[in-house]
Amino acid sequence: MKNFVPVFKRELGAYFNSPVAYVFLFIFLIATGGCSFWLGGFYERMQADLSAFFMWHPWLYLFLIPAVGMRLWAEERKSGTIELLFTLPVTLPEAVLAKFAAAWCFIGIALSMTFPIVLTVGYLGNPDYGVIICSYLGSFLMAGAYLAIASLTSAMTKNQVISFVLSVMFCFILVLTGLGVFTQALSNWFSVGVADFLSMFSFSTHFQSLQRGVVDSRDVIYFVSMIVTLLLANMIVLEQKKHQ
Amino acid sequence: MIRATCRSFVKSLSFLAFVIAYATSVSAKLAALKKGRFMIVVKDLVKEFGVHKAVDRISFEIQKGEILGFLGPNGAGKSTTMKMLTCFLAPTSGFISVDGIATDQDPQTVKTRIGYLPETSASYTDMNVTEFLRFIGEVRGFSGLQLEERVEASIQKCFLEAVRFQTIDTLSKGYRQRVGFAQAILHDPPVLILDEPTDGLDPNQKHEVRNLIRNMGREKCIILSTHILEEVEELCTRVIIISKGRIVADGKPDEIRSRSSEYYNIDVSIHQVDATEAAQKLKSISGVKAVEVLPSAQSGLLNFRIVPDKQQNLLGQVSELARKEHWVLENLSLLPGKLDDVFRSLTMEGRA
After folding, report:
1. pLDDT tens digits for B152-207?
2. Are residues B49 and A244, on separate chains, in Cβ contact within 8 Å?
3. Which of B49, B90, B136 sits opposite A242 (nearest CB)?
4. Which residues form the domain of B298?
5. What distance in Å separates the CA atoms of residue A118 and residue A127, rounded to the nearest whole number?
């Protein structure tokens, strides 16, 4: 893993070398703020918590994270730099992990820049900071899972638009299966067991329990194993292209 | 019973002999590799993309100090072969070793021995030249002062001082090509693989890059692909011509040139003679197959091309005749043969 650091540094730098980072940060902060104040009714709730802020994250991530992740491999393939990268003494796991980590770190930076909302709620009332920290952790882990999907779809094509559309679709399915409305509809068609089983794989289900302030190892394991599995698939896809 | 035992004994003996013979041939090859006789060994290399065979049983060996020119029409399999040598693509079958290491055994070590300039001279265009080279250096395992030295040396060698802090995005094609070159030689590798290194450069830059390649060729092993034939003649100590994934010629540029139909033809320009008479006389020299009259731009000057019936030098006989006939010669020259000619005849076969 000795080449993890240079690749990671380069990749993170690539976000800030281009307008992508600034546009993304701007939109992300506007959107998270806007959603929690107007759609979420932050003040109207009269509660010193951030659920109005976090409840929108699965929906915002649905579009914003594929936008961050779509370039990861598709751009390298399109511009031919993938040939450069894989003829340097960089191993496949190093490259996949470093690129993923850089993008995740970038999202982490964006997420940490939402700190004024924590200050706001702290000024207005007496929030449970444990719940807030736990929700941030959940949000960050969920972002990782979204990103792993985006990274996988990005490795499958050299077209960033296709990569974006595919990852939005996959993420949407994983958000949907955990929503009450959808599981009810499912349980009408199939048995309740099937609907429950499907909802176990959903982002929403696991994020909701983390949002309540309970760090359940099952949820953490869910997100981590999701990331690991998707990144392994990512490596397999890239290895496959070598042998095509 | 005894016969059966005998037979099985003989069988096992012949099997043993076969094994020993095989082992010695393999060990001889390995010994040659270890001694460093061959920097690159390619054996029966095949690459299939679906049903299309891009590379079809290619074999060659390259020694240190050789500059090998890979020639071939577009789509002949040059780039695919190079991508397999650099471990970017895995061969469908066949064997490659670089500096004694098989690419399927230890690709990571092989990659450290190779400097590679990809066809598109692709680089991370959002970085500036120094940043980019520093990134390459870090991945190549350099750090601190050594890293700075390497980056600096590469910048100097590839004439990049003027643009060292410029974003690669904003550079012209010639500069980008040089950045790709700088990246390839940064770690001073024993093997350089260059996919169309002078593509897109102006004549001065081409000249500089060729000088660079020639200077490095002394202690390295260089493979370059190109479709510029003059480049091959100027640079390469050896040429391999590929067509439809197969090697159709392998040798020194002179050897390959000598296969040209023009080889040993003589061009002669004579002042103030009668065309038919002179042609007749030239034809009478023994060994001459044909004499053609070539168009002339100057009045009173006639150009002839003398074609020998087999490859032989008739220059002496022609000049002897000219002296006897008191011809006033403007030009008398032996044609060296054209690589271009050979290239076309080898790669166009079965096409039209």
Report:
1. 999 998 889 999 999 999 998 888 888 998 999 999 999 999 998 888 788 888 88
2. yes
3. B90
4. 266-335
5. 9
Contact B115/B185 with Cβ under 8 angstroms? yes
Residues B250, B302 within the same domain:
no
Q: Does one domain contain both B250 and B286?
A: no
Is B156 a domain residue? Answer: yes
Verify whether the Cβ–Cβ distance B123 to A7 is below 8 Å: no
Interface mutation vs chain B, best among A84, A86, A158, most B CBs within 10 Å: A84
Beta bridge partner(s), residue B128: B167
Last residue of a domain, one of B257, B283, B303: B257
Determine whether the interchain pair A88/B139 forms a contact, defined as Cβ–Cβ distance below 8 Å: yes
Task: Please tell me the total count of domains within chain B.
Answer: 2
d(CA B283, CA B261) in angstroms, rounded, equals 18
C-alpha span between A154 and A106 (Å, rounded): 17
What's the pLDDT tens digit per position in B193-244? Answer: 999 888 878 888 888 888 888 888 888 899 999 888 888 888 889 999 898 8
Selected for mutation to probe chain A from B139, B173, B181, B183 (highest A CB count within 10 Å) is B139
CA neighbor of B270 nearest in space, from B296, B291, B301, B292: B301
What is the number of domains present in chain A?
1
- DSSP-derived letter for residue B314 is -
Same structural domain, B194 and B67: yes
CATH number at residue B211: 3.40.50.300
- Do B86 and A3 lie within an 8 Å CB cutoff? no
Q: Do B280 and B213 share a domain, yes or no?
A: no
CB contacts of A17 in chain B (<8 Å) are 126-127
